[in-house]
Amino acid sequence: MGPGLRMLLLMFLLGSLVLGEVLARLLPAWGHPKGKAVMRGLMLLAVGLYGGSLLTVSLTSRERVLPRGTDLRFCGFYFDCHMAVGVDSVKRTPTVGAARAHGEFYVVSIRVSSNAVRETLRLMNPEYQILDAAGRRYARSPAGEEALTALTGAKAALVQPVPAGGEYHTAVVFDLPAGIPNPRLLVRDVGGPDMVLEGLLIGDDDSFLHKPTTLALQ
């Protein structure tokens, strides 16, 4: 099911609930005393079927790991998917400039791009984490990124406008345990009101309890 179809399905459900509530209030006045109970029952059934489908798809989902060179796409309000993030390179090192890792620094060079034809777009509030084989999540290392900025003079640019068909490159740093098994990069765009709708979309990576899509680092 494509992203546009998922959004249309949710919009159809919400529209049906609004129409059902209107009819539930009007039918008794039109001479149908049982109309209110019937409409409320149909509304409850629709919510139950949708919620059951949402949970079933989420609980049976599996994490998708995109291979190196494949971009993770982000959809703007689920009718276009122009923005993308990909991994350019990964450098593992015990030190970054004057900073020494507790385990091992992963300096992940990323590419943020847009295939839009006309509009300048940007990610709202991208969040970068690393997952290991056990599903543990690791946040970025402020000390590592400060050292990288001091070393290169370039601060991590995570939120930056991207012109139509353009891209930019930046880097994020993680301090990971040595020998971490099967690390993958998890990128989520957590800004804006879209997050509420995404949590209710059947089959969406950000829907309730759904397994994510990640980017391979090895």
Provide an overview of this structure.
The structure is a single chain. The chain contains 4 helices and 9 strands, in the order ααββββββαββαβ. The protein is α+β, with helices and mostly antiparallel strands. It has a 5-stranded mixed beta sheet, with no helix packed on it. Strands 2-3-4-7 form a 4-stranded antiparallel beta sheet. A hairpin with a 5-residue loop joins strand 5 and strand 6. The mean pLDDT is 88.
Q: Short description, anyone?
A:
By secondary structure, this protein is an alpha+beta fold. It has helices spanning 3-26, 35-59, 142-152, 194-198, and strands at residues 64-66, 72-76, 80-96, 99-114, 126-131, 137-138, 167-176, 184-189, 213-216. α1 (3-26) runs antiparallel to α2 (35-59).
Task: Name its key features.
single chain; alpha+beta; 4 helices; elongated
Q: What's the number of helices?
A: 4
Q: In which range does the helix fraction lie?
A: 25-40%
The helix-strand sequence is: HHEEEEEEHEEHE
Largest sheet: 5 strands, mixed
